[in-house]
Amino acid sequence: MAVPSYFTTGEKIAHYSLRVFVMLVLLFLISPIIAVMPLSFNSESFFTYPMPGYSLKWYEDFFFNDRWTGALRMSFFIAICTTILATFLGTLAALGLARTNFPAKSTIMAILISPMIVPVIISAVGMFKFYAQLDLASTLLGVILAHTALATPFVVITVTATLSAFDKTLMRAGASCGAPPHTVFFKVVMPLILPGMISGALFAFVTSFDEVVVVLFLASPEQRTLPLQMFSGIREMISPTITAAATVLVLFSTALLVTVELLRRRSEKLRGVQA
After folding, report:
1. Most buried one in 32, 65, 104, 223, CB count within 10 A?
2. Which residue ranges form the domains of the chain, and what is each CATH number?
3. Rounded to the nearest 10 degrees, how much is the dihedral formed by the CA atoms of 79, 84, 85, 90?
């Protein structure tokens, strides 16, 4: 963003200094990731700089080894199921909380977003004890429900933020034309809040796909997700394939974040059109 012309020399120096400082902080935060990614192309089976050579054999092992591909498929299956449930439940909760006459709105909102605040290890222990009583521990359904509980707050927050700028007179206009509530929702409300729903769904997907602590407590040996496979690989046998898996996850997460940003900008444009 260009510096306004009315800035003094001191203000311009402060402006650029702040931007340089922020860039240095961001570089410091992502430097471990930048350092790991080149190691995924190492030709040797150990971690070292400088690398003696380059090879794609670790990516070949990641994409064609049954141990890694099975974990990848399991992660995608759990994440997709979690995303569907979290998006459905989170959108319903956000629609209810958006009503002005909703009782105890602040209390219910605090309960809904509590999984984002409570340390995940505490949530995992509590879920394990609760699910063990229901015979859901070490089951695929238990893992999906646990991930849904962790992912739903992201959908609630994004959809609630979208609904905060929603013009409720559009719903009344649809109802005055004789449309039933479900028609008003699918024809009027949903197209306008869809960017928020998709953003929340993407956050829910990433939350489930990258989660490992709850899986450690609730999953059986057959339900081995990709993060769990990476965690076990670090403990049992350090292989450069882990760096290849980490690089793929970083690139995948970056693509999802770029998608979320594009959806956010589209949502802002829709708000501008409504205004």
Report:
1. 223
2. 67-274 (1.10.3720.10)
3. 110
